[in-house]
Every structure is written in structure tokens, then in C-alpha cells.
């Protein structure tokens, strides 16, 4: 199975990104995480993107806050799918990172999840890998069934 690459712009993003680690572990998906900054360590970020496909990665998740250009900078150097997590920073409630990540000009896509949406980023990565992995697809289906049952049980308990 292909691996998921997870890059965060700063160690300060780790508390948000940890949710993605947990989700990938739940699905038994191998991942490799790094702290690489688009502006503080541009060479390392670029090298990761350039070599990721040959090193067995199938998708890359990038988490960054403020003027968050990490996902775009990674996407510029790979044709692997890139998922961006805009991280909430000390000002503007993460709107700065959201717009910086989601508003990619045409030609270089970044699939952007919600502000701090690390779980969905991981799930989207799993869904991408599941396109060619029936076992992973079965796990995703089972998880959706469990989630639906939980909602329906909540509904039932309201009216009993
Ligand atoms: C971004 O700037 C990082 O992704 C982080 O969210 C934000 C602040 O970084 P630190 O100053 O905490 O290292 O590059």
C-alpha cells in the first residue's frame, strides 16, 4: 500500500495534526510525518515533494497556519494529490490560512479541508488510497455504517 506523507509548517501545528495520525492508524495506513516550512526550509520541503512518488507515497497532507503557502509549494513540485489543512493561528481565527490554502490559482490543485480539519484530511487521504485498495474501501464502508447507526440510535433515544 502507498504511504501518506504529512508535512507541517511548524512543530506548533502538531496538536492539530495529531488527529490525522490517529485516523490513519485506525485504518492501518502507513504515514511519515515531517516538519518542513515553505519559507524557513524551502529546500527540504521541495526535496520531499520531488522525491515523494519514488519513495512510495500516494498522497501528501500539508498543515500550515497564517499565510499558509506550504500546501501550494508542495503541490508545485509533485503531481501526487495534495491535501491542505489550514491551521488556526493567533489572529484572524484561521481565515488567513484557509484562504491561503484554498485559493490556489488554476493548474496546481490543493484539496483543502476545513480549518483544523485534520481528521477529514486523513479520511480523504484514505479514500484516495482506497481507489485501488479493496480492503481499505471495505473499512471505509464499515466506518460509514457505524457512524450512521450512531446517529440513528441517538434519534431513537430522543423519542423513547
Ligand atoms: C506557519 O506559521 C506554521 O505552519 C504555523 O502554523 C505558523 C506559526 O509558526 P511558528 O511561529 O509557531 O513556528 O508557517
Summarize the structure.
The protein is an alpha/beta fold and 160 residues long. The protein has 6 helices and 5 strands, in the order E-H-E-H-E-H-E-H-E-H-H.
What is the topology?
Layout: E1 3-8, H1 14-26, E2 31-35, H2 42-51, E3 57-65, H3 70-75, E4 82-87, H4 95-102, E5 111-112, H5 118-130, H6 134-158
Parallel strand pairs: 1-2, 1-3, 3-4, 4-5
Helix pairs in contact: 1-5, 5-6
5-O-phosphono-beta-D-ribofuranose binds at residues 9-10, 12-13, 37, 64-66, 87, 89.
Structure overview:
With 160 residues, the chain is an alpha/beta fold. It has one domain (3-133): Rossmann fold. It has helices at residues 14-26, 42-51, 70-75, 95-102, 118-130, 134-158; strands at residues 3-8, 31-35, 57-65, 82-87, 111-112. Strands 2-1-3-4-5 form a five-stranded parallel beta sheet. α1 (14-26) runs parallel beside α5 (118-130) and α5 (118-130) packs across α6. The longest helix is centred in the C-terminal third of the chain and has 25 residues, at 134-158. It starts with a strand and ends with a helix. The structure holds 5-O-phosphono-beta-D-ribofuranose. 5-O-phosphono-beta-D-ribofuranose binds next to β3.
Amino acid at each position: 500500500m502507498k504511504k501518506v506523507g504529512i508535512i507541517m509548517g511548524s512543530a506548533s501545528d502538531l496538536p492539530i495534526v495529531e488527529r490525522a495520525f490517529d485516523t490513519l492508524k485506525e485504518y492501518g495506513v502507513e504515514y511519515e510525518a515531517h516538519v518542513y516550512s515553505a519559507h524557513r526550509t524551502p529546500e527540504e520541503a521541495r526535496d520531499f515533494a520531488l522525491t515523494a512518488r519514488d519513495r512510495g507515497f500516494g498522497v501528501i497532507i500539508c498543515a500550515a497556519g497564517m499565510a499558509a503557502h506550504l500546501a501550494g509549494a508542495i503541490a508545485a513540485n509533485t503531481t501526487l494529490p495534495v491535501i491542505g489543512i489550514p491551521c488556526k493561528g493567533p489572529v484572524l481565527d484561521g481565515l488567513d490560512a484557509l484562504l491561503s490554502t484554498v485559493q490556489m490559482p488554476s493548474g496546481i490543485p490543493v484539496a483543502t479541508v476545513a480549518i483544523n480539519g485534520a481528521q477529514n484530511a486523513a479520511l480523504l487521504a484514505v479514500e484516495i488510497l482506497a481507489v485501488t485498495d479493496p480492503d481499505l474501501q471495505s473499512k471505509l464502508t464499515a466506518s460509514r455504517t457505524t457512524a450512521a447507526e450512531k446517529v440513528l440510535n441517538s434519534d431513537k433515544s430522543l423519542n423513547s
